[in-house]
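Entry for the shared binder. Reason: the reviewer on the internal report wants the predicted structure included alongside the sequence.
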Amino acid sequence: MMGADEGVVERRHLAPDCFVIYQGHHGDRGASMADLVLPGAAYTEKAGTYVNTEGRAQQTRIAITAPDQAREDWMIVRALSEVAGIALPYDSLATVRTRLAQVSPTLTRYNSVEGANFFAQSELLAKTVGAQLSSKPITPSVLHLKDFYMTDSISRASRTMAKCVKAVQDMEKSTYKNQ
């Protein structure tokens, strides 16, 4: 469930008989409403492919060992597929990346900037739903995030980040703030 850790989805939004599975790390709001938690490795604990804000695919390596029973995400999905009786043909990270290259080659062109096409996609989507793109600027409802550094589950689980936020809050209350 996308957004479950950010409080977008709550248990009350779901059907009473809905079985919730949480796969992830730093279990936050989403994990607290789950019927089953599948512990995933954090980004520092797994080899991964990520796309940065410039559109560059980047490959990461394991920096530290995942704790206890945490596993890399592809391993969890592979194990579930076997339990479900439709085993995926991926037995190594290399086979996952080979399939990734077939499905989305841009995700295997590491450190290469891929042109963003979301404006073209948005325009095409607008045509299919019979809507028109507005030329008016969008004004967000929130212009300043009070606790910007606590907006994700990893930061919320960090004692260091909690100390930083408290220091900023104390500074904001300080009589010496503007001196």
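Summary line for the report: The helical segments are 29-32, 73-83, 93-103, 118-128, 153-156, 159-173.
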